[in-house]
Amino acid sequence: MEKKKIVILFTSDVHGKISPYNSQDKSYDGKGYAKVSSVINTVRQEEENVIVIENGDMLQGTPLSHYMLAEKEDSSQIHPVISACNTIQYDAAVIGNHEFNYGREKLEKAVNDSNFPWLSANIVKKGTTEPYFGTPYMIKNFDGLTVGILGLTTKNIPVWEPDRHIDRFDFLDPVETAKTWISHLKDEKQVDAVVIAYHGGFESDPVTGQYLAAKNGENQGNDLLASLPELDVLITGHQHLVYHAVTESGTAVIQSGTKGEFVGRIDLDFEKKQKEDPYTLADRETSLIPVKDAKADEKILSDIKEIENEVDDWLDETLTTVSDPSTMQIEDPLEDVWTKEHPMIEWVNKTFLKITGAEMASTAFFLTQGMTFGNTLTRRDIHAFYPFANTLVVMEATGEEIQASLEFSASFLTLDADGRPAVSESWKYPRLLSYNYDMWEGIQYTVNLRKPKGERITSLTFNGEALAPNKKYRVATSSYRASGTGGYDMFGEDKIIKEFPFGVTEMLIEELENTEEFVPTTNQNWKVLM
């Protein structure tokens, strides 16, 4: 009996995180590629046959990444994430949805600078079925044992990205695409094991059936499992879940969180009785390796030191002074932001209104923890407060749709047994979805938490009059929200009437650069009754 073990390691949704220090406040968080590198190197020393995959959303997500993609004058320099992944020696990367945030040219440069192929079978040249980046899959050969890895990406990218970023691509259905390519790998290439690395997630837990996400085509992991019973491994991402299991049908399924907090691991044990026999997959096991106790890779840290210092100087530049920071401190988001107006939320919305000329605006507080403000506002503060690469849009929504969106937002909150405000359980799983709780400006409304969900908006007016159900109003908000994602299916990209081609964060920074002094104020246009 001949036996052989293959170990697959992967990361997903690292979002530009290299250093184990948080770029927002420089605190140590023990995550990122420098730590990932040490974990992978350790496994490579322990195991003979190792495959290493990056499963997407690697380029975007930190101020350093943003600086390299949008601010750095020397555009020839290799992105530090690509340099780090070259050092780690990934075997392949899968394209994530956030890879498109800075446009096609930036993505193409990242792909060209990589020492590894980028896989995505369902991102094709417009009007064709030809994979845009040329490599739908890769095959790793270990002395006659072959493993085929197919790359797939969520098809919902056109929902989030402006046309100018994706006008040369089509995004095919991952499930239908997988059927074609898996047959090719099994029948023509005769691989011994089939792996899908999918930058997308699950609508329900593949083992328990517990609800995870809406059925809107964004996360088709369950459909992949149902359509491809021959699948040996399904690597997933996009949702930032910490999850691993082996399904009843024997497919290893796994997702490794975000920011490089874990390295996902799948152990595949093969055997064959005779030398001329094909290998049979006898067992599979999934696990997640935490990186927090690993020593950071000094080469990776050294490689980014110069650009880190450059970015730190850029982030620490003062944009404006603050008249009274005492009114801005966020100790507990539930008490200081989500149940009462906060000056920064109001300022963001008013800036949206000023830039767009819309009638009303909405935004969210994206952090799940507090935030401290000083006597000045810096670029670092704004990148921390608004960390996503959204663009600003104006959409037309009816009074009825606006009311429905407010009711959905209001379901984020509830009252505990003592009558105190709390976050609803349904918003805590699979992770805290507070970035989908919106606060509005330009309208006046009241949220009564003692009312049933769906009936909590007890007062809603615009310029002193009730919103007309069928009248269309111009709303300034993020491209993400206007897309209808995150439970806001009353909206959608068909409602967008204007898009501003610059990131929200950059617009906010420019506004503060032209503000002599930031004066924290709130006008109490909304309130929460408990």
UniProtKB/TrEMBL annotation:
All residue ranges annotated as the Calcineurin-like phosphoesterase domain in the record: 7-240
Protein family (similarity comment): Belongs to the 5'-nucleotidase family.
Pfam family, any one: 5_nucleotid_C
Record InterPro entries: 5'-Nucleotdase_C (IPR008334), 5'-Nucleotdase_C_sf (IPR036907), 5'-Nucleotdase_CS (IPR006146), 5_nucleotidase/apyrase (IPR006179), Calcineurin-like_PHP (IPR004843), Metallo-depent_PP-like (IPR029052)
Name listed for the protein in its UniProt record: 2',3'-cyclic-nucleotide 2'-phosphodiesterase
Keywords, in A-Z order: Hydrolase, Nucleotide-binding, Signal
PROSITE patterns to which the protein is assigned, alphabetical: 5_NUCLEOTIDASE_2
5'-Nucleotidase C-terminal domain boundaries: 336-492
